[in-house]
UniProtKB/TrEMBL annotation:
It comes from the Bacteria. It comes from Petrocella atlantisensis. InterPro entries: 4pyrrol_Mease, 4pyrrol_Methylase_sf, 4pyrrole_Mease_sub1, 4pyrrole_Mease_sub2, CbiE, Cobalamin_biosynth_MTase. One of its GO terms (biological process) is cobalamin biosynthetic process. This is Precorrin-6y C5,15-methyltransferase (Decarboxylating) subunit CbiE. The lineage of its organism: Bacteria, Bacillati, Bacillota, Clostridia, Lachnospirales.
């Protein structure tokens, strides 16, 4: 059995009780170096992987087949079912072989921090893929996880190209000590490298205070 455990946006305080219990009971726990450290737990058998899917697949197979482990715990940042590992692992190993423990996603965390509801929210990703920008800027409320190729600045430029100027809330390093949350818009966003981030687009003319 593969237990995919959502560990929240970052700090150990974001771990649910169920997630802590799964990690404690795991025969081995696979995660990136940052993920393993962020749990703040004394893991008996931690296994580090690079963050690449092919590496994770190999590590899981090694434990299940070569080491004959009955259970493997795989750490997933945020919630595994929101553009996370659960779908990939189910595609690889089958649904019956995977158990998912929900976590607090970075998107949920950011909405809570800015005191904005998630009702009627459209969620998508610019992480490793190009979103449908024509659709995004027609939706009143959008949340995206991003990467180094398509980040907050690039999203803002796509909006300007289409004649839109949405409000943008950018959350970086959410839940960590160096957390940063800023509000801007497509026309005034700073061109720079943004750290691990989530972007909220408000296309309805609303403004946060």
């Amino acid at each position: 059995m593969i237990n995919v455990v959502g560990i929240g946006p970052g700090k150990a305080s974001g771990l649910t009780i169920e997630a802590q219990d799964r990690i404690k009971k795991g025969q081995c726990v696979i995660g990136t170096k940052r993920q393993l450290a962020s749990t703040g737990m004394n893991i008996i058998k931690p296994i580090v992987y690079s963050g690449r899917m092919e590496d994770l697949e190999a590590k899981i197979k090694e434990q299940l087949i070569l080491n004959q482990s009955d259970e493997v715990v795989v750490l997933a940042s945020g919630d595994p079912s929101i553009y996370g590992l659960s779908k990939c692992l189910m595609d690889l190993f089958g649904k019956d072989a995977v158990h998912v423990t929900a976590g607090i996603s970075a998107i949920q965390y950011l909405f809570a921090r800015i005191k904005l509801d998630m009702n009627d929210l459209y969620i998508t990703s610019a992480h490793g893929k190009r979103p449908d920008f024509d659709l995004l800027f027609k939706m009143p409320k959008v949340a995206l996880v991003t990467d180094g190729s398509i980040g907050p600045y690039e999203i803002g430029q796509e909006a300007i190209l289409r004649g839109f100027n949405p409000r943008m809330i950018i959350g970086e390093n959410l839940s960590y000590d160096d957390e940063s949350i800023q509000e801007t818009d497509a026309k005034t966003i700073t061109r720079k490298k943004y750290e691990m981030n989530v972007v909220i687009l408000l296309n309805d003319g609303s403004r946060l205070y």
